[in-house]
Specification:
Layout lengths: L9 E6 L12 H4 L70 H8 L8 E3 H12 L3 H15 L6 E3 L5 H4 L41 H11 L5 H18 L4 E2 L4 H12 L12 H8 L1 E3 L5 E3 L18 H14 L5 E3 L5 E4 L6 E2 L2 E2 L3 H13 L2 E4 L2 E3 L3 H15 L10
Antiparallel strand pairs: 1-8, 2-3, 4-7, 5-6, 7-8, 9-10, 11-12
Helix pairs in contact: 3-4, 4-11, 4-12, 6-7, 7-8, 7-10, 8-10, 10-11, 11-12
């Protein structure tokens, strides 16, 4: 059997950090403002109407991805295409589920995945390719991580937001709850760009926070490129570190860096050839400005007008390079708080994280993405997310063909 990557080690005594307002690059005036967020849903809604994703057609094939298989990988396509009413914007209703990921919320609002917010592995793989021109390899990785961590491997269904176990699971809650993408310290984690930390908002880690969006804009100044988002990611880390006594920043935090790259690699029209400006981000995030620097949520996360997807696919090899560059611009420590001001370091995890820092190469980060879906990963300072063997085997079955020849240790099925 191929050797497994090593499990984490908790190291050393507590390490204290100064208050976030004293950190370089942090606009401390923003930290004292009351958080402007509106709780999206008081409870998980039930929608008896499950339409599924709108079908693709010969007239509007986009990249041609269907049935969870690779598309052409050729982008530069207008989305939605002129005349494609099936993928026109439709705001979510009170019984439709939305969650912490604006890219998926927009996909649901345009029927690239089911409008009710209950999607499937196949829908996710197809939608990422057709809507954003995500490479087939990365689309499979992200869909696998989502379903394995937060959904059901039998039905291959996933809620893009709240716990909808009665609709995603083949057995209801008999074998446990399926928390959806809102599930804390699985796909979602502390230091989100525009969502609250779970323990700072009574579990609301999914609603749009206008104060955080305003902080992001204040840092980026209308240009949401790599350099500015790297600084903002650092600021959010320092803010959570100072304010959240239950703050945790483990190996899965690399997914937060990956998500941040979408703002300049996927969201601009034509991807990296376009401009990651405020109008684009406001459209995808559903942010409405009052003209004075404050933002509220307009319930309309949507593709901007006259928008084209990126020309070349955004592949795994590209995203791991971007993750590495974002992190190295402002390195931080992996670990978490055991009470206010009591930071504990996460020692080592695989080859990518050593001594509480990301030190590995992009190829090491790529292997860590594989491990996140196929192995037990620390989900807090005191525990490890114990994935059932069936889940790890399912994930390995999806990912082994993608990672074949990568040099990563693969699980033998």
């Amino acid at each position: 059997m191929a050797p497994l990557l090593s499990l984490f080690l908790l190291m050393g005594p507590a390490i204290a950090f100064p208050f976030v307002a004293d950190m370089p690059g942090v606009d401390s005036s923003l930290l004292s403002k009351r958080s402007r967020d509106t709780k999206r849903q008081l409870s998980c809604p039930f929608n008896a109407n499950h339409p599924g994703a709108a079908p693709y057609s010969a007239t509007y094939p986009y990249t041609g991805a269907k049935n969870g298989l690779p598309g052409t990988q050729r982008g530069g396509i207008k989305v939605p295409a002129d005349g494609d009413t099936a993928h026109a914007f439709e705001a979510p209703g009170p019984n439709d589920i939305r969650g912490p990921c604006p890219g998926l919320n927009a996909a649901a609002n345009h029927h690239f995945i089911s409008h009710d917010g209950i999607t499937t592995f196949t829908e996710l793989v197809d939608a990422q390719q057709n809507l954003y021109n995500v490479g087939y390899d990365l689309a499979v990785i992200l869909a696998t991580l989502g379903v394995a961590m937060d959904g059901d491997i039998v039905t291959q269904k996933l809620s893009i937001g709240c716990d909808a176990t009665s609709r995603t699971s083949a057995t209801g809650s008999l074998l446990g709850r399926q928390l959806g993408l809102n599930g804390h310290n699985k796909f979602e984690g502390d230091t989100s760009l525009t969502r609250n930390d779970y323990f700072l908002a009574a579990g609301d880690n999914y609603s749009f926070n206008g104060t955080l969006f305003g902080m992001m804009q204040s840092t980026c100044q209308g240009n949401f490129n790599r350099d500015n988002l790297a600084l903002y990611r650092y600021q959010r880390y320092q803010q959570s570190l100072a304010q959240n006594p239950n703050f945790y920043f483990g190996p899965k935090a690399l997914l937060l860096y990956g998500a941040a790259t979408f703002l300049y690699e996927l969201f601009p029209s034509l991807g990296p050839a376009g401009i990651p400006d405020l109008a684009t981000m406001s459209s995808f995030f559903g942010a409405a400005s009052d003209g004075k620097g404050s933002y509220t949520f307009n319930n309309a996360e949507r593709i901007p007008p006259n928008w084209y997807n990126r020309v070349t696919p955004y592949t795994t090899d590209l995203v791991v390079v971007e993750i590495n560059l974002l992190y190295l611009a402002h390195p931080v420590l992996f670990g978490g708080n055991a009470g206010a001001g009591n930071f504990n370091l996460l020692g080592s995890f695989g080859n990518a994280i050593q001594g509480g820092k990301l030190v590995g190469s992009p190829s090491d980060i790529k292997c860590l993405l594989y491990q996140l879906a196929t192995d037990n990963v620390p989900s807090s300072l005191s525990g490890v997310l114990e994935l059932p063997l069936a889940v790890m085997s399912w994930a390995a079955g999806k990912l082994n063909p993608i990672f074949e020849g990568s040099g990563c240790p693969l699980k033998i099925l």
